[in-house]
Amino acid sequence: MKVSVIVPVYNVFEYLDKCLDSLSHQTLKDIEVIIVNDGSPDNSEDIIKKYTKKYQNFKYYKKENGGLSSARNYGIKYATGDYIAFLDSDDYVTCDMYEKMYEKAISNNYDLVVCDINYLYPDKTLKVDCGIKCDTLDIKKTYLTIHPAAWNKIFKKDLFNHNVYFKEGVWFEDVEFIYRMLPYIKSIGVVHEYFNQYVQRPGSITSSVSPKIYDYISNMNGIIDFYKERKLYDEYKKELEYVYVRYLYATFIRSIKKYDYHEYMKAVNIAIKNVKEHFPKYKRNKYFYKNIKGLYLIMFNKLIAKILYKRS
Does residue 186 have a pLDDT over 50? Predict the structure, then answer.
């Protein structure tokens, strides 16, 4: 088997047909689709059985509800492909996605292959670059720019021998997973085509407001602990420092603006406290002086946070 595509399913009845249909029409024939029903209470199972009955390469597994990460990890156990891909069940892909990405993978035995993404909103389509300009062996540079999603990538199956899986019970699990997997990746191939169609739907995690937003911080702290436990920290400290500050002072702060002002400022204080605790001298890091975003991260403080909130 060339590629295994893992599809976790939970409460996506109205989107699932389009997702599975896009997989049934893949031009890559040596492919398996591993569907994991994560205890979905809706009628998703009826759709799943329709496809597994029609297509022999569609395999169905059912488990108790454990969340997206749990379902993905469950599916990995059953994957037989040389490469593993992940597709959320409310998204879909172009028919040639996995053929072209697999061809890129075997062209130079890449550990990871990435593609670009279409973010599909009800009234517009936003084209999002994968964050890596070209094929590379310089993995450290990708820490600074990579789009940390699981579903626009195919991973060499052997990478999972390093015992890196998705953290369960948290939001933003893709970011946490990608940065724990990166030090084991030695080569990345890039296909600049917008294969993945990422549907932005009401009620999805990315558009909801919840205390789980603080998983950004706990996940980042967990990544630091992971690198230290595996004796990787010293080698990647500068890259981790940039990533850590960027996610707390940019991504996290942008997300927390959905809250009221009191909660927002509480979050700002927590972010500043964590940065001071883990990287008190981050302004000495040369990575922050390479672009405008880096300069914003150097200048960030409570006053700037207040201005950002008033402009939102």
Answer: yes
d(CA 30, CA 147): 27
Dihedral of CA 254/256/259/260: which sign? negative
> What type of residue sits at position 13?
F
DSSP summary character for residue 66: -
The pLDDT tens digits of the residues spanning 114-153 come to 999 999 999 999 999 999 999 999 999 999 999 999 999 9
Q: For 57, list phi and psi in degrees, rounded to 5.
A: -85, 0
Helix 261-278 × helix 302-311 angle, to 10°: 140
CB atoms within 10 A of CB 260: 9
Residue 144: C-alpha distances to residues 38, 76, 130, 194, 302 (Å): 33, 27, 12, 21, 24
Spatial separation of the C-alpha atoms in residues 176 and 161, rounded to whole Å? 18
All structural domains of the chain:
3-206 (3.90.550.10), 209-311 (no CATH)
Q: Rounded CA gap, 231 and 233, in Å?
A: 6
Q: What is the mean pLDDT of residues 40-69?
A: 97
Dihedral sign of CA atoms 287, 290, 296, 299 in order? positive
Q: How far apart are CA 221 and CA 292, in angstroms?
A: 25
Please state, as a whole number, how many other Cβ atoms lie within 10 Å of the Cβ of residue 177. Answer: 24
Which residue is listed with tokens 């997989």?
23
- Identify the pLDDT of residue 210: 78
Select from 254, 267, 261 the least CA-distant residue to 293.
254
pLDDT per residue as tens digits for the range 203-216: 554 444 578 899 99
Average pLDDT of the segment spanning 68-86: 98
Tell me 222's DSSP state.
H
Q: Which helix (H) or strand (E) holds 119?
A: strand 112-121
- Closest to 255 measured CA to CA, from 264, 246, 243: 264
